[in-house]
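Key result, reporting period 2: structure in, sequence out.
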């Protein structure tokens, strides 16, 4: 198995994997899928595509948490 290096919210991570989905990344980081938005390389990934969208070497991922209030 190879290692891939990605950036998540401006923090670098190295994972032992060839590639994995957004859902797998969120699971590895213990982040629930509810109440968040995910962008990969500046493109929004729709929640329905989390399990199909593949994270690859060098990708820049932004995970944004929704906060309610007024």
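The corresponding designed sequence is given below.
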């Amino acid at each position: 198995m190879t290692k891939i290096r990605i950036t998540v919210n401006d923090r670098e991570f190295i994972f032992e994997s060839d590639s994995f989905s957004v859902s797998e990344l969120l699971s590895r980081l213990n982040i629930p899928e509810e109440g968040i938005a995910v962008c990969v390389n500046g493109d929004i990934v729709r929640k329905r595509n989390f399990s199909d969208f593949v994270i690859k070497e060098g990708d820049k991922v932004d995970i944004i948490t929704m906060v309610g209030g007024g």
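The chain has a mean pLDDT of 93. The longest helix spans residues 22-28. This case is discussed further under Risks and Mitigation.
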